Amino acid sequence: xxxxxxxxxxxxxxxxxxxIDGRTPLRGLDQQxxxxxxGSTVRIDIMHRGTRKETSLLLSQREIEAYVFRDLPGATAxxxxxxxxxxxxxxxxxxxxP
Length: 98
Known about the structure:
Blueprint: H1 4-8, E1 16-20, H2 29-32, E2 41-48, E3 51-58, H3 77-87
Antiparallel strand pairs: 1-2, 2-3
């Protein structure tokens, strides 16, 4: 668990999440909150330095970065080949110095 919301809820590194809304936490916390709406509050039970503690966490909007590849006008066949190799993690042939 990380982020400003977690810190504001009193969570810190090393805390063990015991339950979320009374349920055992899933392996990936992102999956746990996939169906939760931003702005909703979840109750979290944690073990903090050997003591069980209950807190609530206000869920914020998830930020998603999206990238779009667009073909440039006039791109050469060699440029397309390099792009495709990069996108598919193919090894590039060594280039000689100009």
